[in-house]
């Protein structure tokens, strides 16, 4: 199975400051169709997960533009340009190329 | 508005069975792969299974192969997960999600396997 290594596992950020989460995968997520199947989700406290980013860098409908994704191959990053209080929760990356799909361990974001 | 509503969870003894349902609305259900993901209490997300638009392809995580069956009824815009030979370690909130990339998620259904 593809191993998804997220770092850090937790971070505490002052509102208005940036945040960055890394996701490294044990196999390339580049498909022969040219797309790279890496997703980012946020699970807010007490809620279901919600999709933020698909195919590395495309923001899902309604996701604020302070969220951005980047990377290629096996190395990916989620960035929040200016953290807001509503961004607290656990962030997960998921690979959508290999079976079974696998998630990272999760990164817990809290506000200072 | 896209909506996914899971039902069918509950308390079951080890070795027992449950059938989860997921009612979809607000999108063209038959045009999307559908996925089940679970989350054990206090733990992270685990992909369980997915199914192609016409049901012709189904994939499972190894830990549930031979015990769980994913299915769908496009006429009813519904997704199902038949869970047999349940184990204590299957205890989790089970989410259905639209698309192979889990674009939208339901609220989840809690399955507790305990004697």
Could you list some keywords that capture this structure?
heterodimer, A: 112 residues, mainly beta, 7-stranded mixed sheet, 4-stranded antiparallel sheet, 49% strand, globular, B: 115 residues, 6-stranded mixed sheet, 10 strands
Order of helices and strands of chain A: EEEEEEEEEEE
Low-confidence stretches of chain A: none
Number of helices of chain B: 0
Helix content of chain B: under 10%
- Compute the average pLDDT of chain A: 97
Oligomer: heterodimer
Give the N-to-C terminal Cα separation of chain A.
36 Å
- Characterize the largest beta sheet of chain A: strand count, sense, and whether it forms a barrel: 7 strands, mixed
What is the number of helices of chain A? 0
Q: If you compute it from the alpha carbons, what radius of gyration of chain A comes out, rounded to the nearest whole angstrom?
A: 13 Å
Content of β-strand of chain B: over 45%
Gap between N and C termini of chain B, in Å? Answer: 40 Å
Q: What is the percent of helical residues of chain A?
A: under 10%
How much of the sequence lies in strands of chain A comes to over 45%
Helix-strand pattern of chain B = EEEEEEEEEE
Computed Rg of chain B: 13 Å
Overall shape of chain A = globular
User: Describe the biggest sheet of chain B?
Assistant: 6 strands, mixed
Q: Low-confidence segments of chain B, ≥5 residues, pLDDT <50? A: none
């Amino acid at each position: 199975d593809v191993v998804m290594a997220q770092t850090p596992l937790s971070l505490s950020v002052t509102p208005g400051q940036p945040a960055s989460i890394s996701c490294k995968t044990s196999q390339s997520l580049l498909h022969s169709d040219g797309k790279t199947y890496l997703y980012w989700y946020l699970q807010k406290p007490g809620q279901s997960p919600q999709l933020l980013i698909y195919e590395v860098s495309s923001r899902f409908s309604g996701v604020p533009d302070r969220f951005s994704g980047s990377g290629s191959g096996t190395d990916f990053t989620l960035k929040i340009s200016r953290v807001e209080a509503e961004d607290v929760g656990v962030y997960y990356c998921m690979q959508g190329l290999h079976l079974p799909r696998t998630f990272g361990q999760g990164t817990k974001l809290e506000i200072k | 508005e896209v909506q996914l509503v899971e039902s069918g969870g509950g308390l079951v003894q080890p070795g027992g069975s449950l059938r989860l349902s997921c009612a979809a609305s607000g999108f063209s259900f038959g045009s999307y792969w559908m996925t089940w993901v679970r989350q054990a209490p206090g733990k992270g997300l685990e992909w369980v299974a997915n199914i192609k638009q016409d049901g012709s392809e189904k994939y499972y995580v190894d830990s549930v192969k031979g015990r769980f069956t994913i299915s769908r009824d496009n006429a009813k815009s519904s997704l199902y997960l038949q869970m047999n030979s349940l184990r204590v370690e299957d205890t989790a909130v089970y989410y259905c999600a639209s698309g192979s990339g889990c674009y939208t998620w339901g609220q989840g259904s809690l399955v507790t396997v305990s004697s």
